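Subject: mismatched residue count in predicted assembly?

I count 677 residues in my input, but I want to confirm that the predicted structure covers every chain. Input:
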Amino acid sequence: MKPRVGMFAFTCCEGCGLAVIECENELLDVLSLIDLVEWREGLSEKANPPELEIALVEGSISTHADEQKLKAIRERAKVLVALGACAHTGGLNALKNRYGMNQVKQMVYGEAGAQFDTIPARPLSAVVPVDLFLPGCPIDRTEFLSVVRDVALGKAPRLPDYPLCVECKKKENVCVFFQGRFCMGPVVRAGCGAICPTHGDGCEACRGLVSHPNEQAHKETLAEHGLKVDEVLMHFNMFNSYQEDQPA
Amino acid sequence: MNEVKINIHDVTRVEGHGDVVLDVQSGEIKELKLAITESPRFFEAFLLGRKWYEAAHITCRICGICSVGHTSASLQAMENALGVEISDQTLLLRKLTFAGETLQSHYLHAFYLVAPDLLGVPSVLPLVASHPEVVKMALRLKRLGNDICCTVAGRHIHACAMKVKAFPKVPQAEDLLALRQRLVDSVPDLHATVALLQTLALPQFERDMEFTALHHPEEYALYRGEVIRSTKTGDTAIPDYKQQVREFVAPHSHAKHVASAVGPYMVGALARFNINYDQLRPESKEVAAALGLQPVSYNPFMNTIAQVVECVECTLDGIEFIDRLVDMGLHEEDMTVEVKAGRGVGASEVPRGTLYHEYAVDDEGTIVDCNLIIPTGQNLSNIEHDMRALVPQILDRPQDEIALQLEMLVRAYDPCISCATHLLKVEFV
Ligand code: SF4
Ligand code: SF4
Ligand code: SF4
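Triage response: the counts match. Full output below for your records.
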């Protein structure tokens, strides 16, 4: 029996769901491994029966309604996968959390804002237990395919837990620090193929940090550019402001 | 039938979340609403205090499917604010990326979201078994659009290499030429798409309405325009966009809607086609004629056909842009920007219509004010007006069919509700 899979979106750009469709050539292979039974963006069908082996969930939780829906999905699903930065770390959405919710509504919608149900944006794991996460904004297609294959075959997927610089050096990129740009590479979890530095841009840490950055940081790069882990971490908040605001 | 109650929760096969509510009693519409249930994300609040160079990479995350579109409008707005000029090379690279996104977005809409309705199946999945060739062709065409974005700008969703002033790394000529070959090779697939569409019937429905799109004297406006052109109110300068795009609080919803001086209007491929038809290539006009699309078309269901016409245009554009880039010889560019205080507006014709970004920065390049107007926000009122006109015409049909027609109408606009910046929830009973 192929595992029954549902895809769900909360507060986000739905880019991670789109990245799944953008697997294009490999999409038919994936569809032969799984049984996609529910996905509002792409299917009119609703899952029947409602149980799912795998729920793929993108987006942050930022309304009371989101919270209830996520809990209902959790109950239906054996494995719940957080897809992308919004779901994994809260992503960009958490940038609004530095304001009061009434203030933020007033700023964007004026008087009419009062009607919105909005609460500080949180990653899925702040609301329900999450079994697996796929980091990135958006997720990496290759990583997605390998994780789905593993889960469908009952294997435990493994994500890299070493700094991006390792991947970047393998590609023989010129380090963007030499071009006067900033890069989070020394402390960020690899796995995206260092795509931003490969295209000349500094890493913005959308995949989050390696565990224990102080020990694992890519010391070589730091030394080369006279940087300290703390200095690099200061630039960390575009996608990771939720983590910064949590008591350590 | 006189009594109809429809509540379609989560219109499927659109980007983002929307509900349609219809209540007809004794043949009269008591309630008709397109309700947006998306949670707003408050980009306009969290952009404040961020730096000039972050704006494009933050705002592209408004919407995955028109990420390059947001990036394009954002970069133009920031460059206008800072007084930055871009080179011909950068302009061509951006237009090429933009064509790639337009292709992938239009193909996604036509094949994955609309074709199932026309072929009478609930989604694209059954087509994998019943029409494998169509699905493979769709995958191939869409992949090409993505690969254009990946080659030029790193990736399609949230392009890394689209930055203020220039590309931090320019693509290799040989990689562009490989794309050129694939564009040439995709022409037979395009013709097959046209042939397929010729066998399918779109609903016949017309309503007198206003169309609005950017216009550029030298090109069919997509990445950029020179003025905002309306079929009812004439031309408006882009920095004065608020005269055309008026936000107001609708009494029934306590929320902002968008209208022009004369009422709701439509943006998107059909609006562009109607306004800028003369600037299309002969090949695109031929396809339009073959599919029964002539300007001015007042049938919103024809939006999908206008998208296919634009696919022809973007395919040929892509070939031309690559030829020009390779002829010019690609070179790395300086990216230094002199930061100073200013305000700027940027606008692009993204797949779903005109997108506006406006920023003000202080003399340290910190964003102190911003405004974002997305296409779907502009179309919402117009969709509701279409529904009001359409429902009486189909009221004698079974309830399922009415519901399907309304869903198809919403999908024809290709709404992208995930860009919930100024998208407003419409209260319903
Ligand atoms: S993680 Fe990024 S790409 Fe994915 S849904 Fe969130 S904003 Fe979009
Ligand atoms: S700092 Fe960034 S650019 Fe430099 S090697 Fe590390 S990942 Fe690559
Ligand atoms: S290089 Fe950094 S910002 Fe870019 S995708 Fe990888 S982790 Fe994200």
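The longest helix of chain A spans residues 64-76. Marking this ticket as 'not a bug'.
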